[in-house]
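Figure 3 (text version): structure tokens given as input.
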């Protein structure tokens, strides 16, 4: 493999890479603003300029380039020697930072980008420490450029990442560079709002505080946020995301880079679709039909009574003319949830019917010029749930939602366990009609709906950000995600609920749900060995806790 020398150390690189790409692959810091791996190279910020020496093709003698070159644009070559810490390169970095800060407002105390701003970081690392500019600063306007994004033009450093994104990735071309010189600014074309399905990504791309997310504006200082790697729990895309939260509350969702899945982007649907997690209407306590509301001050007793009610109903099945149990597992649940629920259902009735819940679709798949695809299927794990149920079904067919309804109408089943966890109302009149013929309905859900209203026992489930698990996306990629926040009040993950129900049936203390332990158990089941050898864990994305230190006064 060819090698080049950066700041006195040799590093390997892949043929065709630029100097900056080679440096970043080796975790060598080279300051840059305009470069982004998902966008074209324009080399207009100039802070990445380096002093470069390369072997003469004829003599093989190392010779310097006549001037500093942009490392983001210059191809690396074998034997090349690069200095980004030489006096010339450092002088350029200081000059570029001074130039960028000439008209920049001193907004850091009130800027949402403070704490994760490249301008702040580079000013400290590569800046002069004081300004020689005494003239009046140019004042640029604030602009509302779309339903989700604000533009503070006076903070912009004209890296043009956002403009290139709308041209190269979405192909919607809403953004442009208007004007020239010190008065140039980013703007939208007349009559065009920044309103494409990926618009929020320009906020992530902005290295300073010029483009701001309306939803996150002034909500939380970023140094208080904790970051947990997760997977899109709303659609079938399997986009890799980071859930950023503090004190048990989610404040924003951002993309995690994964070139095999979502590259560097996520849809606005995923970015803002988590709000139901903190809905005021969330089901927070178990309930039993015909009994007074369980005491929220005694959650353990409430859960004990609810599980006992379920166990009593399951035991009565044996003496009922309708001995069958039907289980509807939502495609919004994880593979681990499906495993525990199905295993519990089969312990009650070895011939229990296993079915996959309704899979919502909206429109058609949509692909953008940059290669990103929005999925019409709005369920994260329909394939994973079906895979698990088929593995446990012992060769019997696994029904879909329509098959589940038809089977209930046959009069064979005396009890049904129905799971939801959808972000919106998902219950159809045909489902409630079918469930009306069943003696016992156990509903496990996060939001109230027609099924929870008619259910014999209601058990509050957990949203995907409140538990650990795995999803299989539309392309068959199996990916794990971590728990970001604790479940709402007295809710539990569906896996834990299933374990509690199984423990009540066996008359033993319940075991605590562990995703890793569950996957080990699953991998021993024929057809589920993928949980051991095909599960993709988050790459280079560990849970990050806040580094803010508090001092008691």
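Below: residues designed for each position.
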């Amino acid at each position: 493999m060819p090698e080049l020398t950066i700041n006195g150390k040799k590093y390997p690189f892949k043929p065709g890479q630029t100097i900056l790409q080679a440096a970043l692959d080796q975790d060598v810091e080279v300051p840059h603003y305009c470069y982004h791996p998902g966008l074209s190279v324009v080399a207009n910020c100039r802070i990445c300029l380096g002093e470069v020496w390369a072997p003469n093709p004829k003599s093989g003698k190392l010779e310097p380039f006549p001037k500093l070159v942009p490392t983001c644009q210059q191809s690396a070559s074998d034997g090349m020697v690069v200095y980004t810490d030489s006096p010339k390169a450092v002088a350029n970095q200081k000059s570029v930072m001074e130039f960028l800060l000439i008209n920049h407002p001193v907004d850091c105390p009130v800027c949402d980008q403070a704490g994760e701003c490249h301008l702040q970081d580079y000013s400290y690392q590569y800046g002069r420490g004081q300004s020689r500019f005494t003239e009046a600063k140019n004042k640029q306007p604030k602009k509302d450029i779309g339903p989700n994004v604000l533009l503070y033009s006076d903070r912009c450093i004209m890296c043009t990442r956002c403009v290139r994104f709308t041209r190269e990735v979405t192909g919607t071309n809403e953004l442009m560079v208007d004007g020239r010189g010190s008065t140039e600014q980013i703007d939208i074309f007349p009559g065009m709002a920044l309103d494409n399905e990926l618009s929020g990504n320009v906020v992530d791309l902005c290295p300073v505080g010029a483009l701001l997310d309306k939803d996150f504006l002034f909500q939380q200082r970023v140094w208080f946020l904790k970051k947990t790697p997760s997977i899109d729990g709303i659609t079938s895309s399997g986009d890799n995301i980071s859930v950023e939260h503090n004190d048990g509350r989610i404040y924003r969702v951002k993309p995690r880079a994964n070139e095999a899945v979502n590259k560097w982007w996520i849809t606005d649907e995923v970015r803002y679709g988590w709000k139901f997690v903190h809905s005021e209407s969330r089901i927070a306590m178990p309930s039993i039909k015909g009994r007074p509301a369980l005491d929220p001050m005694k959650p353990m007793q409430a859960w004990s009574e609810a599980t006992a009610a379920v166990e009593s109903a399951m035991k009565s099945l044996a003496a009922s003319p309708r001995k069958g149990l039907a289980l509807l597992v939502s495609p919004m649940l994880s593979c681990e949830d499906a495993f525990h629920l199905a295993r519990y259902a089969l312990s009650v009735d070895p011939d229990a019917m296993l079915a996959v819940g309704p899979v919502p679709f909206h429109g058609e798949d949509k692909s953008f010029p940059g290669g990103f695809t929005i999925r019409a299927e709005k369920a994260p794990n329909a394939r994973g749930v079906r895979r698990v149920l088929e593995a446990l079904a012992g060769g019997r067919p696994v029904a879909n939602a329509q098959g589940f309804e038809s089977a209930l109408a046959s009069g064979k089943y005396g009890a049904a366990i129905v799971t939801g966890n959808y972000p919106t109302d998902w219950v159809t009149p045909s489902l409630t009609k079918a469930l009306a013929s069943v003696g016992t309905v156990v509903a496990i859900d996060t939001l109230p709906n027609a099924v929870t209203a008619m259910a014999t026992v209601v058990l509050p489930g957990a949203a995907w950000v409140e538990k650990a698990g795995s999803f299989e996306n539309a392309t068959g990629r199996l990916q794990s995600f971590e728990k970001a926040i604790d479940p709402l009040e007295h809710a539990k993950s569906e896996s834990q609920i299933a374990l509690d129900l199984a423990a009540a049936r066996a008359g033993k203390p319940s075991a605590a749900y562990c995703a890793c332990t569950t996957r080990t158990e699953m991998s021993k089941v024929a057809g589920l060995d993928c949980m051991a050898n095909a599960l993709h864990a988050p790459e280079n994305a560990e849970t990050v806790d806040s580094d803010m230190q508090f001092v008691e006064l």
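Residues 204 and 420 are 32 Å apart (CA to CA).
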